[in-house]
Amino acid sequence: MRLNEIRRLYKIIRVHLEYGLDELVPDNSLTRWPHFLRRGLFWLKNKHSDKEEGDRLRLALQELGPVWIKFGQMLSTRRDLFPDDIADQLALLQDQVMPFDSKLAKEEIEKALGGPVETWFDDFEMTPLASASIAQVHVARLRENGREVVLKVIRPDILPVIQSDIKLMYRMAGILSRFLPVARRLRPVEVVHEYEKTLINELDLLREAANAIQMRRNFDNNPILYVPEVFSDFSHKNLMVSERIYGIGVSDIDTLTKRDTNLKLLAERGVEIFFSQVFRDSFFHADMHPGNLFVSYDNPDDPTWIGLDCGIVGTLNREDKRYLAENLLAFFNRDYRKVAELHVDSGWVPADTNVDEFEFAIRTVCEPIFEKPLGEISFGHVLVNLFSTARQFDMEVQPQLVLLEKTLLYVEGLGRQLYPQLNLWETAKPFLEDWMSRQVGPKAVLNAIKEKAPFWAETLPELPELVYDSLRQGKAVSQRMDEMYGAFLEGQRQQNRVRFLLGIGASLLITSAILFTHQIETLPEITCVTALGSWLFAWRAANK
C-alpha cells in the first residue's frame, strides 16, 4: 500500500475509534479479536463518550466524507434494522450534512455562470436550504419571470477526497480477490468500479439534469410522480438550477398523518413508481432515500410523490428485465426448479451448473421464508437471499443488479415506514404479470406490430421492387451455385482420372519388377515405359 493510502486507512480507523464506534459491535466469540486489538491502540480513545450512539455514528460518517455519508444514507432507509435513536440520526445525513462556506458556494456559482448571481437571479439566499454529501442547495428567484428556483452547487475540492477513498477500496478489493477465493466470484474490484462510476457521475450536474429531464418526461401527466423542471440554460457541470418545490418529507409521518394522507396508497404508489421505472422505462431512480423524496401538499387522499436528485440512475437491458421478472414470479409461486433454470439460461451462473443441486439449495434457503404471512415477507431480502444462494454456485456479481437490489431495499424500507402492513408482493405481482403478458403471447405480437408499423408503412411502397430484386438475386445465386456445382463435379472427375492413371502406373511398375525377377526379356522394359507414360498423363491432368 502507498503512503497516502496508509494515512487514509489510519484516519478511518482513528475516526471510528475516537467516536467510539467499536462499542457498537456486539461482544461475542467472533468479535473478541477486534476488541483485543482495540485495547492495543490505547492512544486512540473515545473522545465523544458524552454523546449518544446514533449521534456519534452520524458525526463519524460525516467526518469521513461523501463515500461514508452515502453508506449512512443507505442504512437510514432500513429503520427495521436499527433502534430509533440511531435511525433518526442517520436520517439527518440525507439533507442535513454540515454545509460549507456560503461565500465559497456563491463564488462557485458565479464562476459557473460567468458573472454575478444578481445578473440572472434575485433574492439569493446565502443560508443554504439543504446540504448533502456531494452538494448543497441555495434558493433564489429568476429575474426574468420571478419563479422560485434552487441552485445546487457541488462542494469544491470534493473529488480528491472521493478518489482517495476509492483508491483504498480498490486496494482492499484487490487483496480480497487475491487471497480469498470465495471473494473472487463476488468480483469486488468490479463492484468498486461500478460504485466509483456512480459517485463520479454524481459530480456531473449536467448528467443529473439530463436524468431529471428524462424522468420528468417518463411521468409526464402521470399523477403518481412529479419531477421538478430543470432550467438547462443555467446548468453547468458543477451547477444545476431547477424549480423549487414545496412538499412534506416522506419520513415526516406525523405531518402526513395529521393531513389525513392516504398512507397505504402512498406506499403502494412508491412500489408502482419503482416497478414502472424498472420494467416500463428501463431507467430507475437509484438513490431513493427520504432526503430525495417528498409528498405534495395537494390532494392527501390522492397523494403524489415528488422526486429529487436524479444523480444516480440504473438501467436494465431487455434480457435482464425478462429474467428478473420471471425469477420473481417463479420464486413467489415456489417454482424453485424454474428459478434455477432461469439463472442458468440467463448466464448468471455457469452453464455446467447442476440444476438439481441448485434447485435444492434455493429451496433450503428460501422455503422457510414462506412460513411467514405473505405481507410480512421482505421483498428485498428475498432478492438478497436469492442472489446470495446463486453466488455459492459461482454466480458472478451483476453490477446493474446490485444497484437494483439496493434500490429495492430503499423502496421497501420507505414503504414499510409509511405503512407497516404494506404487502409489497401483492402490489408488485399484478404489475410483473402484466409486464410479462406484454412481452410474450398475443399482446407481445400486437405490440411488436404496432412498434414496427411505421417502418413497414415506409417500406411498403418499395416492396415490389425489393421482391423483384430478391428474385433476380436469387436466380443469379442459383445460376452461380449450378456453375460451382458443375465445376465441383468436373474437379471430382479430374481427380478420379488422376488417381486412376497413378494406380495403373503403380500396378505396371510392380508388374515390371516381377517380370524382371523372372528374367523375362523385353516385356519388363515395355511395362516400365508404359507405367512412366501413365504417370506422365496423370501429372498433365492434375495441372490442367
UniProtKB/TrEMBL annotation:
Entry annotated with the keyword Transferase: yes
One annotated GO molecular function: protein kinase activity
Pathway: Cofactor biosynthesis; ubiquinone biosynthesis [regulation]
Domain of life: Bacteria
Transmembrane segments: none
HAMAP family: UbiB (MF_00414)
Short name of one Pfam family: ABC1
Enzyme class: transferase
Binding residues annotated for ATP, in chain numbering: L129, A130, S131, A132, S133, I134, A135, Q136, V137, K152
A Gene Ontology biological process term: regulation of ubiquinone biosynthetic process
Domain called ABC1 atypical kinase-like: residue spans: 93-343
Protein name: Probable protein kinase UbiB
Keywords tagged on the record: ATP-binding, Cell inner membrane, Cell membrane, Kinase, Membrane, Nucleotide-binding, Transferase, Transmembrane, Transmembrane helix, Ubiquinone, Ubiquinone biosynthesis
Function: Is probably a protein kinase regulator of UbiI activity which is involved in aerobic coenzyme Q (ubiquinone) biosynthesis.
